């Protein structure tokens, strides 16, 4: 058999040469379109649903958040499997689709089901779909630092909170406009926040409750568009 193959290749050498040249041209053509990546992403087609549930223990998170979301996701087209993690104050449901499924089609299906799941979730609990990238998609990391002795406009040194503001309000919005950037995650620093620590005894002495205080804060921070009347 092997001898016949060799004899055929010798007798039909021009045909063999044409086939070899054709394979070489095809290889060069495909090589030019081959994606090159230092760490190729081998993750399957999946959509993650992250839900923040502050104050919920893992068991309650599982029962009141994770289970309703998993239930409503059952029966999705081309669904392969569903898995979840319930931790303190956090629920993460991962829906895995069959290979070859368009990721944006899968995200659209999941988003439609999420709207149905919101009806059975506790008030104030809002599930969110994760980004299209996976854990293997992280390609660049940087730090935001201030030179030693650098001062702000008010002649005070930069703090970790100031550097976090520079990252969140200056660097991050500009990087989101770069083609190919899907998500930017910020780690470290201090997020600026305003905390209210009421004196309960003083509230009670004035006939007020914590609910009255929360309502007053919400009303104070509400934005209402100004109107005018032409006369």
Descriptive notes:
This protein is of the alpha+beta class and 231 residues long. It folds into three domains: 31 residues; 91 residues, Multidrug efflux transporter AcrB pore domain (Alpha-Beta Plaits, 2-Layer Sandwich); 92 residues, no CATH class. The protein has seven helices and four strands, in the order H-H-E-H-E-E-H-E-H-H-H. The protein has a four-stranded antiparallel beta sheet. The longest helix is centred in the first third of the chain and has 20 residues. The protein is elongated, with a radius of gyration of 29 Å.
Write the layout of secondary structure elements.
Elements: H1 2-11, H2 13-32, E1 46-52, H3 58-73, E2 79-87, E3 90-97, H4 103-117, E4 128-129, H5 160-175, H6 200-205, H7 210-220
Antiparallel strand pairs: 1-3, 1-4, 2-3
Helix pairs in contact: 1-2, 3-4
